[in-house]
Structures are given as structure tokens and as C-alpha cells.
Amino acid sequence: MVERLQGDEGDEMTILPLIETNEQYAQNLIPVADKLLGWLSRGLGLEDGEMKQGLGGEDLTYMLKINYYPPCPCPDLALGVAPHTDMSAITILVPNEVQGLQVFKDDHWYDVAYIPNALIIHIGDQVQILSNGKYKSVYHRTTVNKDKTRMSWPMFLEPPLEFEVGPIPKLISQDNPPKYKTKKFKDYVYCKLNKLSQ
């Protein structure tokens, strides 16, 4: 299901072309997401559909967001988005040509290079949980630019709010006990947003 957030009454007439374009874009990403989840499943020695089933199967939610970062006169004093991991399962991101995404590895922030016509894929918290920590959620942030506007179009794949997510049973053994609790996605979101232990 692709969710559409509603604006104020009457807004639809002025933004209708944008809504239709973004909904078509979102629909085109669904097969890409299915392939990614299949590859992630195989990487764990599972069948193609097991990762998707562990996230809610055909009830997965696809949420498109549009990020707009205007030029900032003091980019060294501001961040576009503070460091975080995504609560989603995976994030499929289309950036514009203005650099701004950074990932954290080995105690250092690295710029993610812009490659024309390429998608950026982030592993999110839910895939880390499903894989029992084999796949790691990407710790990242965004910076701003002094002279140019930066935009990005992330699509977040999320389980339904009432769906319970936990390590896939086939990945659990005596030698590899569960590292995460199984809980409803809405409870995970609540804990993360309120900085409560999981």
C-alpha cells in the first residue's frame, strides 16, 4: 500500500500533477523493493519471499517523503537532518546532484557520492531486527549547502503498525540466540521516537 498524506482542503487542485507523478514514481519502486527484499533474504540463506513475509508481506507500507534543504548561509553550523538510523525496513533514496548525505563508519563520516540515475539503498532498523543483527541499519545524516538547494525523495518500506517484527525463526539457534525482542512495529516506533530502550 502506498500512503498519501492529505493537505488542506482545496490544495489538491494546485498540486494534483505533483501528486500523480509522485504516486506513479512510488508504484514503480514497489518491484524494486521486492527484488531488494528477495536479495536480502538470499543473503541470509532464506527463500526469496521470507524477508518480505517477516515485514508483513503484501501489507507492507510504502511511504514516500520529499526532503527540501534550501541554501544555508552557515552550513558548518547546521545539519539538514541529525544523525540517525531509519525505523523502516529499507529506504530507497533518489537524491539530486547536490552533495549532502553522509554515512558513519569506523568513527568517521563519509560523503555518499552522487551517481546520476542511481538509487541509494539504506538498510533500516526492521531488517537489522529480522536478520538478528546480520544486516546493520545505516547510521547517517544530511548536511546543507551554502549555495545550492538539495532535495531527496526517500521511499520508506515499513511493516503495518500492528504487525509484529522479530528475528526470523530460521536464523535463531542455540549458538545464535535472539538479539532483539519481537514487538509490534507501532511499539518500536513509539520507543524510538521517545528514546526508550527497545
Task: Describe, in plain words, how this protein is organized in 3D.
The protein has 198 residues and is α+β, with helices and mostly antiparallel strands. The protein has a single domain (11-193), classed as Jelly Rolls (Sandwich). 26% of the residues lie in helices and 25% in strands. It has 4 helices and 11 strands; from the N terminus they run ααβββββββαββββα. It has helices spanning 11-43, 50-53, 125-130, 185-193; strands spanning 61-64, 67-69, 79-84, 90-95, 101-105, 108-111, 120-123, 140-143, 150-158, 164-165, 183-184. The strands form 3 sheets. Strands 1, 2, 4, 7 and 9 form a 5-stranded antiparallel sheet that branches. A 4-stranded antiparallel sheet has the order 3-8-5-6, with no helix packed on it. A hairpin with a 2-residue loop joins strand 5 (101-105) and strand 6. The longest helix is centred in the first third of the chain and has 33 residues, at 11-43. The radius of gyration is 18 Å and the shape is globular. Mean pLDDT is 89; it is low at 1-7. Pfam families: 2OG-FeII_Oxy. InterPro entries: IPNS-like_FE2OG_OXY, IPNS-like_sf, Oxoglu/Fe-dep_dioxygenase_dom, Plant_2OG-oxidoreductases. Residues 59-159 form the Fe2OG dioxygenase domain. Keywords: Iron, Metal-binding. It comes from Mikania micrantha (bitter vine).
